[in-house]
C-alpha cells in the first residue's frame, strides 16, 4: 500500500526516510505534541491476587462514544460499587479469551447481587449508524468488512458503509452474555488473548482494551473444562479489586499516539510496508489488528 493511496483515504503520506525505520523506532521518535492524554476516568484498573509476592495489575481503557456506551456505563456503575472485588478469573481458553466475573452466576441462590441502575442494552448497540463520511478509513484488505480504519481518537473499527462497529483485536475487552436476545450487563467480561476472533464482531459488545498488564492474563494456566473454564475453584485466579482510574492512588499517566499526527501516519506506512533491515519482502498490507494504536506511560 503506497503512501499516496493512504492519502486518498484521509491518512497523510509518510516521508520516505521514515518508512525505512521499524514501527517501534518511528513511535519512539514521535514528538510529545503528537500524543494525547488518556483521562483516568476512562480507565479500569484490575488488581489480581499477587503471584509469589509480586503485584499483578491490568489497566483497561474504556471505549469512547459512540461505541458501546450502554455497556460502558454499566462498567462504571459496577466499578463504583466495587462489585468485582473478591470475584475471579474463571476461564482461560487457549488462543481465544480470558474471562472473569462471578463463578456462581448460574446459581441464583449463590450469585452475587448486581448493583442497581444497570442498563439493559439492546442488540442494536453492537453497531452505530453511519450518518457522515467515515474518517480514518484505511485502504487495506479485510475479510470481515468492506471498510476498516482507526477513529480519530485511536480505536479500530469496521464498516459495511451503512453502520460501523468496534472490532475484536488482541487485548480487546468484551461483554460476556448468554444466548440472544441477552446482550450481557458487563458483569462478565473477557479479553481477547490470541489471534483476533473477528467473527465475534457485531455479536458481542466491545467495551475497551488492555493497555498495560496483558502479560498477567496471557501467562495464566489454561482451563481444562469446556471452553477453557476452570473445573475446580482452587484453579481460579482471585480478583482483589477493579476500580476506575480516578479511585487509584498514584496511578501512572497514559497517552496514545494521535492518528492525526505525522508520526502515526509514518507508523501505519511502516506497518503496511516493512522496509527496515530485517525484512526481505514487504507485505504490501496489514491486518487491521496488526496496526495497534501505540499507548505509553508518560515519562
Describe the main β-sheet briefly.
8 strands, antiparallel, barrel
Order of helices and strands: HHHEEEHEEEEEEEEEEHEEHE
Q: What is the radius of gyration computed over CA atoms, rounded to a whole number of angstroms? A: 20 Å
Shape: globular
Q: How many domain regions? A: 1
| Distance between the first and last residues' Cα | 34 Å
Helix tally equals 6
Mean of pLDDT: 92
What is the CATH architecture annotation? Answer: Beta Barrel
Stretches with pLDDT under 50, minimum 5 residues = 1-19
Helix content: 10-25%
Classify the beta-strand content into a percent band. 25-35%
What name goes with the CATH superfamily?
Answer: Cyclophilin-like
What does this structure look like?
- Helix content is 15%, strand content 26%.
- It is an alpha+beta fold.
- It has one domain: Cyclophilin, CATH 2.40.100.
- Strand 4 (88-92) and strand 5 form a beta hairpin.
Summarize the structure in short.
The protein has about 300 residues and is α+β, with helices and mostly antiparallel strands.
